[in-house]
Protein backbone atom coordinates (compact mmCIF):
# COMPACT_ATOMS: atom_id res chain seq x y z
CA UNK A 1 0.00 0.00 0.00
CA UNK A 2 1.41 3.35 -1.00
CA UNK A 3 1.77 5.92 1.75
CA UNK A 4 0.87 9.53 0.94
CA UNK A 5 3.49 12.06 1.99
CA UNK A 6 2.71 15.75 2.57
CA UNK A 7 4.88 18.19 0.59
CA UNK A 8 7.57 19.88 2.62
CA UNK A 9 6.44 23.12 4.26
CA UNK A 10 2.80 22.32 3.67
CA UNK A 11 1.57 22.25 7.26
CA UNK A 12 -1.77 23.99 6.60
CA UNK A 13 -4.00 21.76 4.53
CA UNK A 14 -7.15 23.84 4.93
CA UNK A 15 -8.76 24.66 1.58
CA UNK A 16 -8.45 28.20 0.31
CA UNK A 17 -11.48 30.43 0.69
CA UNK A 18 -13.73 29.99 -2.35
CA UNK A 19 -13.71 32.87 -4.80
CA UNK A 20 -17.41 33.40 -4.15
CA UNK A 21 -16.67 34.07 -0.46
CA UNK A 22 -14.10 36.79 -1.01
CA UNK A 23 -14.78 40.42 -0.14
CA UNK A 24 -15.03 42.75 -3.11
CA UNK A 25 -11.80 44.69 -3.89
CA UNK A 26 -11.43 47.73 -1.65
CA UNK A 27 -14.44 46.66 0.40
CA UNK A 28 -12.59 46.25 3.70
CA UNK A 29 -11.45 49.88 3.99
CA UNK A 30 -14.88 51.17 2.95
CA UNK A 31 -16.71 49.08 5.54
CA UNK A 32 -14.14 49.86 8.27
CA UNK A 33 -14.55 53.60 7.63
CA UNK A 34 -18.33 53.36 7.85
CA UNK A 35 -18.19 51.18 10.98
CA UNK A 36 -16.01 53.61 12.93
CA UNK A 37 -18.11 56.56 11.76
CA UNK A 38 -21.31 54.81 12.84
CA UNK A 39 -19.77 54.22 16.26
CA UNK A 40 -18.96 57.94 16.60
CA UNK A 41 -22.40 59.22 15.60
CA UNK A 42 -24.36 56.65 17.62
CA UNK A 43 -22.15 57.34 20.65
CA UNK A 44 -23.30 60.96 20.61
CA UNK A 45 -26.94 60.04 20.00
CA UNK A 46 -27.46 58.91 23.61
CA UNK A 47 -25.00 61.33 25.20
CA UNK A 48 -27.66 63.79 26.38
CA UNK A 49 -29.65 61.23 28.40
CA UNK A 50 -27.77 61.97 31.64
CA UNK A 51 -27.15 65.69 31.00
CA UNK A 52 -30.72 67.01 31.29
CA UNK A 53 -30.43 68.17 34.91
CA UNK A 54 -27.07 69.83 34.20
CA UNK A 55 -28.54 71.77 31.28
CA UNK A 56 -31.48 72.91 33.41
CA UNK A 57 -29.03 74.32 35.97
CA UNK A 58 -27.07 76.32 33.35
CA UNK A 59 -28.18 79.99 33.71
CA UNK A 60 -26.97 80.80 30.18
CA UNK A 61 -29.58 78.48 28.69
CA UNK A 62 -32.44 79.42 31.04
CA UNK A 63 -34.60 76.34 30.41
CA UNK A 64 -36.73 73.96 32.42
CA UNK A 65 -36.73 70.17 32.25
CA UNK A 66 -39.49 69.98 29.63
CA UNK A 67 -37.54 72.26 27.28
CA UNK A 68 -34.36 70.27 27.88
CA UNK A 69 -36.15 67.07 26.89
CA UNK A 70 -36.61 68.57 23.43
CA UNK A 71 -32.91 67.95 22.81
CA UNK A 72 -33.76 64.25 22.77
CA UNK A 73 -37.21 64.57 21.18
CA UNK A 74 -35.97 66.76 18.31
CA UNK A 75 -33.17 64.29 17.63
CA UNK A 76 -35.66 61.40 17.41
CA UNK A 77 -38.03 63.40 15.20
CA UNK A 78 -35.26 64.32 12.77
CA UNK A 79 -34.11 60.70 12.59
CA UNK A 80 -37.69 59.54 11.95
CA UNK A 81 -38.10 62.03 9.10
CA UNK A 82 -34.71 61.56 7.39
CA UNK A 83 -34.31 57.76 7.57
CA UNK A 84 -37.26 56.95 5.24
CA UNK A 85 -35.60 59.09 2.54
CA UNK A 86 -32.26 57.28 2.66
CA UNK A 87 -33.35 54.59 0.19
CA UNK A 88 -33.88 57.27 -2.46
CA UNK A 89 -30.71 59.12 -1.43
CA UNK A 90 -28.59 55.98 -1.84
CA UNK A 91 -30.02 55.42 -5.31
CA UNK A 92 -29.34 59.06 -6.24
CA UNK A 93 -25.87 59.70 -4.79
CA UNK A 94 -22.64 57.72 -4.45
CA UNK A 95 -21.50 56.40 -1.09
CA UNK A 96 -18.69 58.97 -1.04
CA UNK A 97 -21.04 61.90 -1.62
CA UNK A 98 -23.56 60.71 0.96
CA UNK A 99 -20.84 59.92 3.49
CA UNK A 100 -19.27 63.37 3.21
CA UNK A 101 -22.70 65.02 3.49
CA UNK A 102 -23.64 62.89 6.52
CA UNK A 103 -20.38 63.30 8.44
CA UNK A 104 -20.15 66.96 7.42
CA UNK A 105 -23.62 67.55 8.87
CA UNK A 106 -22.68 65.69 12.03
CA UNK A 107 -19.48 67.72 12.50
CA UNK A 108 -21.31 71.00 11.85
CA UNK A 109 -24.11 70.13 14.27
CA UNK A 110 -21.63 69.00 16.92
CA UNK A 111 -19.70 72.29 16.71
CA UNK A 112 -22.90 74.37 16.79
CA UNK A 113 -24.09 72.51 19.90
CA UNK A 114 -20.69 72.74 21.58
CA UNK A 115 -20.39 76.53 21.30
CA UNK A 116 -24.11 77.39 21.38
CA UNK A 117 -24.71 80.58 23.43
CA UNK A 118 -28.46 79.89 23.63
CA UNK A 119 -30.86 76.99 23.85
CA UNK A 120 -32.21 77.68 20.35
CA UNK A 121 -28.77 77.17 18.80
CA UNK A 122 -28.15 74.10 20.95
CA UNK A 123 -31.41 72.61 19.67
CA UNK A 124 -30.45 73.52 16.09
CA UNK A 125 -27.12 71.77 16.57
CA UNK A 126 -28.87 68.58 17.70
CA UNK A 127 -31.18 68.66 14.65
CA UNK A 128 -28.22 69.08 12.27
CA UNK A 129 -26.40 66.27 14.10
CA UNK A 130 -29.40 63.97 13.72
CA UNK A 131 -29.72 64.65 9.99
CA UNK A 132 -26.21 63.27 9.51
CA UNK A 133 -26.64 60.40 11.97
CA UNK A 134 -29.80 59.22 10.19
CA UNK A 135 -27.88 58.57 6.97
CA UNK A 136 -24.83 56.74 8.34
CA UNK A 137 -26.46 53.54 9.62
CA UNK A 138 -28.58 52.71 6.51
CA UNK A 139 -25.53 53.57 4.39
CA UNK A 140 -23.43 51.09 6.37
CA UNK A 141 -26.05 48.31 6.13
CA UNK A 142 -26.53 48.76 2.39
CA UNK A 143 -22.80 48.92 1.68
CA UNK A 144 -22.21 45.66 3.56
CA UNK A 145 -24.93 43.96 1.53
CA UNK A 146 -23.40 45.27 -1.72
CA UNK A 147 -19.77 44.41 -0.98
CA UNK A 148 -19.92 41.24 1.15
CA UNK A 149 -20.76 37.84 -0.39
CA UNK A 150 -23.73 36.00 1.16
CA UNK A 151 -21.56 33.36 2.87
CA UNK A 152 -19.86 36.04 5.03
CA UNK A 153 -22.66 38.53 5.68
CA UNK A 154 -23.51 37.12 9.09
CA UNK A 155 -20.03 37.89 10.43
CA UNK A 156 -20.16 41.48 9.16
CA UNK A 157 -23.69 42.02 10.49
CA UNK A 158 -22.42 40.72 13.83
CA UNK A 159 -19.76 43.42 13.80
CA UNK A 160 -22.43 46.01 13.05
CA UNK A 161 -24.40 44.78 16.07
CA UNK A 162 -21.28 45.36 18.18
CA UNK A 163 -21.34 49.03 17.15
CA UNK A 164 -25.10 49.27 17.73
CA UNK A 165 -24.87 47.77 21.21
CA UNK A 166 -21.69 49.27 22.65
CA UNK A 167 -21.93 52.84 21.34
CA UNK A 168 -25.38 53.70 22.81
CA UNK A 169 -24.35 52.22 26.17
CA UNK A 170 -21.03 54.07 26.26
CA UNK A 171 -22.71 57.40 25.44
CA UNK A 172 -24.37 58.00 28.84
CA UNK A 173 -21.41 56.51 30.72
CA UNK A 174 -18.87 58.80 29.04
CA UNK A 175 -21.21 61.78 29.38
CA UNK A 176 -21.58 61.09 33.09
CA UNK A 177 -17.81 60.97 33.46
CA UNK A 178 -17.37 64.22 31.49
CA UNK A 179 -19.97 66.01 33.61
CA UNK A 180 -18.02 65.04 36.73
CA UNK A 181 -14.95 67.00 35.59
CA UNK A 182 -15.99 69.49 32.87
CA UNK A 183 -18.79 71.50 31.27
CA UNK A 184 -21.60 69.83 29.33
CA UNK A 185 -20.16 71.49 26.21
CA UNK A 186 -17.34 68.94 26.18
CA UNK A 187 -19.88 66.21 25.46
CA UNK A 188 -19.90 67.75 21.97
CA UNK A 189 -16.46 69.33 21.72
CA UNK A 190 -14.80 66.12 22.88
CA UNK A 191 -16.22 64.06 20.02
CA UNK A 192 -15.80 66.72 17.31
CA UNK A 193 -12.08 66.00 16.57
CA UNK A 194 -12.77 62.29 16.08
CA UNK A 195 -15.67 63.09 13.76
CA UNK A 196 -13.45 65.43 11.74
CA UNK A 197 -10.79 62.72 11.44
CA UNK A 198 -13.36 60.22 10.14
CA UNK A 199 -14.69 62.81 7.68
CA UNK A 200 -11.16 63.25 6.29
CA UNK A 201 -10.56 59.48 6.22
CA UNK A 202 -13.73 58.96 4.19
CA UNK A 203 -12.83 61.85 1.89
CA UNK A 204 -9.47 60.20 1.14
CA UNK A 205 -10.46 56.52 0.99
CA UNK A 206 -13.83 56.63 -0.78
CA UNK A 207 -13.19 57.32 -4.46
CA UNK A 208 -15.45 59.41 -6.61
CA UNK A 209 -18.29 57.44 -8.15
CA UNK A 210 -19.46 57.63 -11.74
CA UNK A 211 -22.48 59.70 -12.62
CA UNK A 212 -25.71 57.88 -11.85
CA UNK A 213 -29.10 58.07 -13.49
CA UNK A 214 -31.14 59.68 -10.71
CA UNK A 215 -34.56 58.30 -9.80
CA UNK A 216 -37.31 60.87 -9.96
CA UNK A 217 -37.92 62.62 -6.64
CA UNK A 218 -41.55 62.79 -5.62
CA UNK A 219 -41.71 66.06 -3.71
CA UNK A 220 -45.08 65.28 -2.11
CA UNK A 221 -43.69 62.13 -0.44
CA UNK A 222 -41.28 64.14 1.71
CA UNK A 223 -43.87 66.16 3.69
CA UNK A 224 -46.06 63.05 3.93
CA UNK A 225 -43.13 61.12 5.43
CA UNK A 226 -42.44 64.00 7.82
CA UNK A 227 -46.08 64.16 8.95
CA UNK A 228 -46.48 60.38 9.14
CA UNK A 229 -43.30 59.20 10.83
CA UNK A 230 -42.56 62.48 12.60
CA UNK A 231 -46.10 62.84 13.92
CA UNK A 232 -46.20 59.24 15.07
CA UNK A 233 -42.86 59.42 16.91
CA UNK A 234 -43.77 62.78 18.46
CA UNK A 235 -47.19 61.55 19.56
CA UNK A 236 -45.68 58.43 21.10
CA UNK A 237 -43.12 60.56 22.94
CA UNK A 238 -45.98 62.52 24.57
CA UNK A 239 -47.58 59.43 26.09
CA UNK A 240 -47.12 59.41 29.85
CA UNK A 241 -46.12 63.09 29.95
CA UNK A 242 -47.81 65.24 32.60
CA UNK A 243 -49.25 68.74 32.34
CA UNK A 244 -50.01 68.65 28.60
CA UNK A 245 -53.15 70.15 27.01
CA UNK A 246 -55.76 67.44 26.52
CA UNK A 247 -55.79 67.92 22.73
CA UNK A 248 -52.04 67.64 22.12
CA UNK A 249 -51.58 63.86 22.27
CA UNK A 250 -54.60 62.82 20.14
CA UNK A 251 -53.85 65.53 17.56
CA UNK A 252 -50.20 64.48 17.25
CA UNK A 253 -51.08 60.79 16.93
CA UNK A 254 -53.94 61.58 14.54
CA UNK A 255 -51.68 63.63 12.27
CA UNK A 256 -49.12 60.82 12.37
CA UNK A 257 -51.62 58.09 11.47
CA UNK A 258 -53.27 60.10 8.66
CA UNK A 259 -49.88 61.15 7.29
CA UNK A 260 -48.60 57.57 7.42
CA UNK A 261 -51.64 56.19 5.58
CA UNK A 262 -51.32 58.89 2.91
CA UNK A 263 -47.58 58.17 2.60
CA UNK A 264 -48.15 54.43 2.15
CA UNK A 265 -50.85 54.94 -0.49
CA UNK A 266 -48.58 57.36 -2.32
CA UNK A 267 -45.65 54.92 -2.32
CA UNK A 268 -47.80 52.03 -3.58
CA UNK A 269 -48.84 54.19 -6.52
CA UNK A 270 -45.28 55.38 -7.25
CA UNK A 271 -43.84 51.86 -7.09
CA UNK A 272 -45.47 51.08 -10.44
CA UNK A 273 -43.00 53.47 -12.10
CA UNK A 274 -40.03 52.72 -9.77
CA UNK A 275 -40.31 56.25 -8.34
CA UNK A 276 -41.19 55.54 -4.69
CA UNK A 277 -39.33 57.45 -2.00
CA UNK A 278 -39.53 54.32 0.20
CA UNK A 279 -40.20 51.18 -1.84
CA UNK A 280 -42.69 49.01 0.05
CA UNK A 281 -42.18 46.04 -2.28
CA UNK A 282 -39.69 44.89 0.34
CA UNK A 283 -42.72 43.46 2.18
CA UNK A 284 -43.48 41.14 -0.73
CA UNK A 285 -40.61 39.01 0.55
CA UNK A 286 -41.89 36.85 3.46
CA UNK A 287 -38.51 36.49 5.17
CA UNK A 288 -38.05 40.26 5.23
CA UNK A 289 -41.53 40.72 6.69
CA UNK A 290 -41.06 38.05 9.37
CA UNK A 291 -37.66 39.49 10.35
CA UNK A 292 -39.03 43.02 10.58
CA UNK A 293 -41.94 41.86 12.77
CA UNK A 294 -39.57 40.18 15.24
CA UNK A 295 -37.23 43.18 15.07
CA UNK A 296 -40.08 45.58 15.81
CA UNK A 297 -41.14 43.69 18.93
CA UNK A 298 -37.50 43.31 20.02
CA UNK A 299 -36.79 47.02 19.61
CA UNK A 300 -39.90 47.97 21.57
CA UNK A 301 -38.90 45.62 24.40
CA UNK A 302 -35.26 46.75 24.39
CA UNK A 303 -35.92 50.50 24.36
CA UNK A 304 -38.73 50.15 26.89
CA UNK A 305 -36.43 48.25 29.25
CA UNK A 306 -33.61 50.76 28.78
CA UNK A 307 -35.91 53.66 29.67
CA UNK A 308 -37.32 51.95 32.79
CA UNK A 309 -34.06 50.62 34.23
CA UNK A 310 -32.55 54.04 35.09
CA UNK A 311 -35.83 55.07 36.74
CA UNK A 312 -35.92 51.86 38.79
CA UNK A 313 -32.27 52.06 39.79
CA UNK A 314 -32.39 55.76 40.73
CA UNK A 315 -35.89 56.33 42.13
CA UNK A 316 -36.52 52.91 43.70
CA UNK A 317 -33.04 51.61 44.56
CA UNK A 318 -31.42 55.01 45.21
CA UNK A 319 -28.38 54.79 42.90
CA UNK A 320 -26.51 57.73 41.33
CA UNK A 321 -26.59 58.40 37.54
CA UNK A 322 -22.98 57.30 37.01
CA UNK A 323 -23.66 54.08 38.94
CA UNK A 324 -26.69 53.45 36.73
CA UNK A 325 -24.55 53.83 33.61
CA UNK A 326 -21.95 51.43 34.96
CA UNK A 327 -24.62 48.82 35.79
CA UNK A 328 -26.17 48.90 32.31
CA UNK A 329 -22.79 48.95 30.53
CA UNK A 330 -21.76 45.26 31.02
CA UNK A 331 -24.90 43.98 29.29
CA UNK A 332 -24.27 46.20 26.27
CA UNK A 333 -20.63 45.11 26.15
CA UNK A 334 -21.74 41.47 26.27
CA UNK A 335 -24.09 42.02 23.33
CA UNK A 336 -21.39 43.79 21.37
CA UNK A 337 -18.65 41.26 22.03
CA UNK A 338 -20.90 38.34 21.11
CA UNK A 339 -22.07 40.04 17.91
CA UNK A 340 -19.19 38.88 15.65
CA UNK A 341 -19.30 35.39 17.20
CA UNK A 342 -23.03 35.07 16.56
CA UNK A 343 -22.53 36.42 13.05
CA UNK A 344 -20.00 33.70 12.25
CA UNK A 345 -22.32 31.06 13.71
CA UNK A 346 -25.10 32.37 11.49
CA UNK A 347 -22.91 31.86 8.42
CA UNK A 348 -22.51 28.20 9.45
CA UNK A 349 -25.90 27.30 10.92
CA UNK A 350 -28.45 29.83 9.69
CA UNK A 351 -30.86 31.84 11.89
CA UNK A 352 -33.09 29.34 13.70
CA UNK A 353 -30.49 27.69 16.01
CA UNK A 354 -29.56 31.21 17.17
CA UNK A 355 -32.71 33.32 17.10
CA UNK A 356 -35.11 30.83 18.71
CA UNK A 357 -32.91 30.18 21.82
CA UNK A 358 -32.10 33.90 21.95
CA UNK A 359 -35.79 34.82 21.89
CA UNK A 360 -36.49 32.36 24.71
CA UNK A 361 -33.67 33.88 26.78
CA UNK A 362 -35.17 37.36 26.24
CA UNK A 363 -38.56 36.03 27.38
CA UNK A 364 -36.91 34.58 30.51
CA UNK A 365 -35.29 37.93 31.32
CA UNK A 366 -38.56 39.84 30.92
CA UNK A 367 -40.28 37.37 33.26
CA UNK A 368 -37.46 37.86 35.80
CA UNK A 369 -38.00 41.63 35.64
CA UNK A 370 -41.61 41.12 36.75
CA UNK A 371 -40.23 39.95 40.13
CA UNK A 372 -38.32 43.15 41.01
CA UNK A 373 -38.68 44.43 44.59
CA UNK A 374 -37.38 47.48 46.48
CA UNK A 375 -35.08 45.11 48.36
CA UNK A 376 -33.61 43.61 45.16
CA UNK A 377 -29.79 44.07 45.26
CA UNK A 378 -28.22 46.06 42.42
CA UNK A 379 -26.10 43.09 41.36
CA UNK A 380 -29.26 41.03 40.75
CA UNK A 381 -30.51 43.76 38.40
CA UNK A 382 -27.11 43.66 36.71
CA UNK A 383 -27.43 39.90 36.16
CA UNK A 384 -30.98 40.31 34.81
CA UNK A 385 -29.77 42.92 32.35
CA UNK A 386 -26.94 40.65 31.22
CA UNK A 387 -29.40 37.79 30.63
CA UNK A 388 -31.55 40.13 28.53
CA UNK A 389 -28.48 41.32 26.62
CA UNK A 390 -27.40 37.73 26.00
CA UNK A 391 -30.76 37.00 24.39
CA UNK A 392 -30.58 40.09 22.18
CA UNK A 393 -27.00 39.18 21.19
CA UNK A 394 -28.30 35.97 19.61
CA UNK A 395 -31.30 37.73 18.06
CA UNK A 396 -30.28 40.93 16.29
CA UNK A 397 -27.36 39.88 13.98
CA UNK A 398 -29.36 37.05 12.36
CA UNK A 399 -32.42 39.30 12.01
CA UNK A 400 -30.44 42.00 10.19
CA UNK A 401 -28.82 39.44 7.89
CA UNK A 402 -32.03 37.55 7.07
CA UNK A 403 -34.06 40.71 6.48
CA UNK A 404 -31.74 42.32 3.93
CA UNK A 405 -30.37 39.05 2.55
CA UNK A 406 -33.85 38.02 1.43
CA UNK A 407 -34.17 41.08 -0.84
CA UNK A 408 -33.03 41.52 -4.45
CA UNK A 409 -29.99 43.75 -4.80
CA UNK A 410 -31.80 46.85 -6.02
CA UNK A 411 -33.97 46.90 -2.86
CA UNK A 412 -31.05 46.85 -0.38
CA UNK A 413 -31.19 50.62 0.11
CA UNK A 414 -34.94 50.67 0.65
CA UNK A 415 -34.69 47.63 2.95
CA UNK A 416 -32.05 49.38 5.07
CA UNK A 417 -34.22 52.50 5.22
CA UNK A 418 -37.22 50.41 6.30
CA UNK A 419 -35.20 48.64 9.01
CA UNK A 420 -33.96 52.00 10.32
CA UNK A 421 -37.47 53.45 10.28
CA UNK A 422 -38.86 50.44 12.14
CA UNK A 423 -36.16 50.88 14.79
CA UNK A 424 -37.17 54.49 15.39
CA UNK A 425 -40.93 53.92 15.47
CA UNK A 426 -40.75 50.68 17.49
CA UNK A 427 -38.30 52.25 19.94
CA UNK A 428 -40.62 55.22 20.44
CA UNK A 429 -43.63 52.90 20.81
CA UNK A 430 -41.86 50.69 23.35
CA UNK A 431 -40.69 53.67 25.36
CA UNK A 432 -44.16 55.24 25.32
CA UNK A 433 -45.93 52.01 26.29
CA UNK A 434 -43.56 51.16 29.14
CA UNK A 435 -43.56 54.68 30.58
CA UNK A 436 -47.33 55.14 30.24
CA UNK A 437 -48.16 51.82 31.93
CA UNK A 438 -45.68 52.44 34.72
CA UNK A 439 -46.65 56.08 35.30
CA UNK A 440 -50.40 55.36 35.28
CA UNK A 441 -50.14 52.59 37.86
CA UNK A 442 -47.66 54.55 39.95
CA UNK A 443 -49.99 57.56 40.10
CA UNK A 444 -52.88 55.35 41.21
CA UNK A 445 -50.85 53.76 44.01
CA UNK A 446 -49.32 57.04 45.21
CA UNK A 447 -52.85 58.48 45.46
CA UNK A 448 -53.69 55.50 47.69
CA UNK A 449 -50.77 56.30 49.98
CA UNK A 450 -48.21 53.78 48.70
CA UNK A 451 -44.57 54.88 48.88
CA UNK A 452 -43.26 56.33 45.60
CA UNK A 453 -40.52 53.70 45.16
CA UNK A 454 -42.91 50.80 45.77
CA UNK A 455 -45.48 52.36 43.44
CA UNK A 456 -42.89 52.81 40.70
CA UNK A 457 -41.82 49.18 40.95
CA UNK A 458 -45.40 47.92 40.82
CA UNK A 459 -45.99 49.95 37.65
CA UNK A 460 -42.73 48.64 36.18
CA UNK A 461 -43.71 45.04 36.95
CA UNK A 462 -46.98 45.48 35.04
CA UNK A 463 -45.08 47.01 32.11
CA UNK A 464 -42.64 44.08 32.02
CA UNK A 465 -45.55 41.63 32.19
CA UNK A 466 -47.08 43.25 29.11
CA UNK A 467 -43.71 43.16 27.36
CA UNK A 468 -43.31 39.45 28.11
CA UNK A 469 -46.79 38.73 26.73
CA UNK A 470 -46.00 40.69 23.55
CA UNK A 471 -42.64 38.97 23.20
CA UNK A 472 -44.40 35.59 23.00
CA UNK A 473 -45.60 36.75 19.56
CA UNK A 474 -41.98 37.48 18.66
CA UNK A 475 -40.95 33.98 19.71
CA UNK A 476 -43.68 32.51 17.50
CA UNK A 477 -42.60 34.67 14.54
CA UNK A 478 -39.02 33.33 14.77
CA UNK A 479 -40.33 29.91 13.69
CA UNK A 480 -40.78 31.30 10.16
CA UNK A 481 -37.16 32.40 9.80
CA UNK A 482 -34.67 30.57 7.62
CA UNK A 483 -31.43 31.39 5.87
CA UNK A 484 -32.29 33.06 2.55
CA UNK A 485 -30.73 32.08 -0.73
CA UNK A 486 -28.85 34.95 -2.31
CA UNK A 487 -31.66 36.97 -3.87
CA UNK A 488 -30.32 38.00 -7.29
CA UNK A 489 -32.47 40.21 -9.52
CA UNK A 490 -32.85 39.67 -13.23
CA UNK A 491 -30.12 42.27 -13.80
CA UNK A 492 -27.61 41.80 -10.95
CA UNK A 493 -26.63 45.06 -9.28
CA UNK A 494 -22.86 44.80 -8.72
CA UNK A 495 -22.20 48.51 -8.50
CA UNK A 496 -20.37 50.12 -5.64
CA UNK A 497 -21.71 53.64 -5.14
CA UNK A 498 -18.36 54.66 -3.65
CA UNK A 499 -16.07 53.60 -6.46
CA UNK A 500 -18.11 53.32 -9.62
CA UNK A 501 -18.93 49.92 -11.13
CA UNK A 502 -17.94 47.22 -8.67
CA UNK A 503 -16.40 43.96 -9.81
CA UNK A 504 -19.03 41.34 -9.27
CA UNK A 505 -18.68 39.09 -6.26
CA UNK A 506 -17.44 35.90 -7.96
CA UNK A 507 -20.07 33.23 -8.46
CA UNK A 508 -19.47 29.48 -8.08
CA UNK A 509 -17.96 27.72 -11.11
CA UNK A 510 -21.30 26.41 -12.33
CA UNK A 511 -22.84 29.83 -12.48
CA UNK A 512 -23.12 31.80 -15.69
CA UNK A 513 -21.07 34.99 -15.56
CA UNK A 514 -23.10 38.17 -15.56
CA UNK A 515 -22.15 41.61 -16.75
CA UNK A 516 -22.10 44.43 -14.14
CA UNK A 517 -25.28 46.43 -14.09
CA UNK A 518 -25.35 49.94 -15.47
CA UNK A 519 -25.17 52.80 -13.01
CA UNK A 520 -28.87 53.32 -12.99
CA UNK A 521 -31.50 52.03 -10.64
CA UNK A 522 -32.30 48.45 -11.73
CA UNK A 523 -35.85 47.65 -12.64
CA UNK A 524 -37.99 45.28 -10.60
CA UNK A 525 -37.02 41.66 -11.40
CA UNK A 526 -39.07 40.06 -14.12
CA UNK A 527 -41.39 37.33 -12.88
Automatic annotation (TrEMBL):
GO terms for molecular function: transmembrane transporter activity. Residues 30-486 form the Major facilitator superfamily (MFS) profile domain. Residues 488-527 are annotated as: Disordered. It is found in: Cell membrane. The chain crosses the membrane at residues 23-43, 67-91, 98-124, 130-148, 155-174, 186-206, 218-241, 247-265, 286-312, 324-342, 354-372, 378-405, 417-439, 459-481. One of its GO terms (cellular component) is plasma membrane. InterPro entries: EmrB-like, MFS, MFS_dom, MFS_trans_sf. It is a multi-pass membrane protein. The keyword Cell membrane applies. This is Multidrug efflux MFS transporter. It comes from Agrococcus sediminis.
